[in-house]
Amino acid sequence: MVIGGVLMAGCSKTNQAAAGSDTFPLKDCPDRPNCVSSIARNQARYVAPFAYACDRRQAIDVLVQILAEQPRTTIVEKREDYLHVEFRSRIFRFVDDVEFYFPADQPLVHVRSASRLGYSDMGVNRKRVEALRANFSEALKKRS
Predict the structure, then answer these.
(1) Of 6, 17, 25, 93, which is the most buried if we count CB atoms within 10 A?
(2) b or e along 103-135 (b: 16 or more beta carbons within 10 Å of the residue's beta carbon)?
(3) What is the pLDDT of residues 111-142, one digit of tens each?
(4) Cα radius of gyration rounded to whole Å, the chain
(5) DSSP state of 4
(6) Which Pfam families match (predicted)?
(7) Shortest CA distance to 51 belongs to which of 113, 114, 141, 124?
């Protein structure tokens, strides 16, 4: 399944102290250029969170629907505020983990996309997140 991109948020980054805690499931990116995240401390790895102007449940449903249309994609975990998705590369079947967190108090989707193996990803994770953002934004526009 595939999760779609959402509108870019103009909001500030999340409190870094919360990253990776029980209440904030996303971790910061490691010191490798094969990860991007809306909570990244390193600006080279930072991507804006997705924003939405609808009910959180609807935003999650839209993203799940977008992910379902993506090739070689599996939703590994789905909770009311979190999605963990695996994307597999076409030829070598390398796995990239993409996580989405929907905080209850903000109309944002925090995102983290990282390769499991290797050092560089040739920009694949950033391109994926931006494509999902565009798909998410377009799907939300169609629903309104």
Answers:
(1) 6
(2) beeebbbbbbbbbeeeeebeebbbebbbebbeb
(3) 999 999 999 999 999 999 999 999 999 999 99
(4) 14
(5) P
(6) DUF1499
(7) 141
